[in-house]
Amino acid sequence: MNTSTSQALFEKAQQYIPGGVNSPVRAFRAVGGTPIFIKSAKGPYVYDEDGNEYIELINSWGPMILGHAHELIQKAVSDAIQHSFSFGAPTRREVEVAELIVEMVPSIEKVRMVNSGTEATMSAIRVARGFTGRDKIIKFEGCYHGHGDSFLIAAGSGAATFGTPDSPGVTKGVANDTLTAPFNDLEAVRQLIDSNKNKVAALILEPVVGNMGCVLPAEGFLEGLRKICNEEGIVLILDEVMTGFRLAKGGAQERFGIKPDLTTLGKIIGGGMPVGAYGGRADIMNWVSPAGPVYQAGTLSGNPIATAAGLTMLNYLNDHPGVYTQLEESGKKLADGFRASLQKLSLNYTLNQIGSMYTLFFTNQQVTDFPSAKSSDLVLFGKYFHAMLNKGIYLGPSQFESMFLSTALTDKHLDMVIQANEESLKEVLNLH
Ligand code: KE4
């Protein structure tokens, strides 16, 4: 496959942009090789600068649930653009999109629009701290909540010790206020809370994790967290930036029947435009400025172009429940096909799949938390990634990411992905 234009662009990009990319995962460092530069996309396809066509399963890391360049979203954006781009003043559509989010996600009584998932999660923990008057937060190893300082914290060794910065530039002071527990480990959460009595403002997690690869909550885990947060007066925040409006119309919280105090959203709301949001209980959200004292702001928050895309996307999802039926069927078809190939090749790699999210882990262990995810063979994943890419299937360039299906993928496309998966496994493992 000729990717010479992408290679030349990557060379040039590295002269002007750190690592040649505007977000690290795009640089292919986890899988090796040169990132492909995307020129355009339509439906289930992306096209690179050398004209290669790929069936894609990243969908911009989740937003393109209806596939790329959906005509309704495109029309909404092109109509909105006729009226200029940004006013920095309230607009009708912000009211309409807020009303729709409140309707679609019952736990959300009030919502604030921001411009990214990172802004949503940073703001949600700030308002939780303001509301409770407490400083500490609990997060889980392997969960990613954007690049806010409070989230770039690795677990300190032992339950009682404080977190350690995961990145230079994050201060020890910030790290001291972030406690980390293993995902799916209720006992570890209980220990952290017992050793930080009345100091924990919020507990934040991805209800279904996408950022260590797709990892599901264990039976009773979410319910256990809800119970602990109720008992301890801790704000339960579900980070649904990936799962929101994807795993059900009302997100993972609808699918698992859990009512958080706050929810963070992103990705799908904007249909690919820069949008995030956080919302939840009115008694908490009324602490957000200017209604309350917790400051949070943004020039482009509720931007008229982004809200045009978001309103159209959410109205479509709200009015077409068949989207979720199709996503369930597609996810099951893909998982059944992958598992049939694994069985045929006598491989017992772990496939975690729920709805339209999945990850094939190159490990024989069950993957239920970050340590088990890290037991995967990353070199083998890198070879598999490139084998699939060379077959025209564009996966997320990291073992520790979920893939995302869209309604633009037909059975024909899914069969092509299933076939390419089997051929790629045989190729990288020298099986015949
Ligand atoms: P953004 O700031 O990237 O819009 O959202 C941060 C974020 C927050 N919460 C969850 C659950 C997320 O998945 C994300 C962003 N996800 C990554 C994918 N692993 C975005 C891709 C990237 O970083 O380039």
Q: What can you tell me about this protein's structure?
A:
This protein has 432 residues and is an alpha/beta fold. The protein has two domains: 4-69 and 321-429, Aspartate Aminotransferase, domain 1, CATH 3.90.1150.10; 71-319, Type I PLP-dependent aspartate aminotransferase-like (Major domain) (Aspartate Aminotransferase, domain 2), CATH 3.40.640. The protein is built from 14 helices and 16 strands. The chain has helices spanning 4-16, 71-81, 92-104, 117-132, 172-176, 186-194, 221-232, 252-256, 282-285, 304-319, 322-344, 370-373, 378-390, 411-428; strands at 38-42, 45-48, 53-56, 110-114, 136-140, 153-154, 164-165, 178-181, 200-205, 235-239, 262-265, 276-280, 350-354, 357-361, 393-394, 403-404. The strands form four sheets. It has a seven-stranded mixed sheet with strand order 4-12-11-10-9-5-8, sandwiched between helices. A four-stranded mixed sheet has the order 1-2-3-15. Strands 13-14-16 form a three-stranded antiparallel sheet, covered by helices on one side. Helix 11 (322-344) packs parallel to helix 14. The protein is globular and about 60 Å long. The model has no long low-confidence stretch (mean pLDDT 96). Residues 23, 25, 61, 116-118, 121, 144-146, 206, 210-211, 239, 241-242, 266, 276, 401 line the site of ligand KE4.
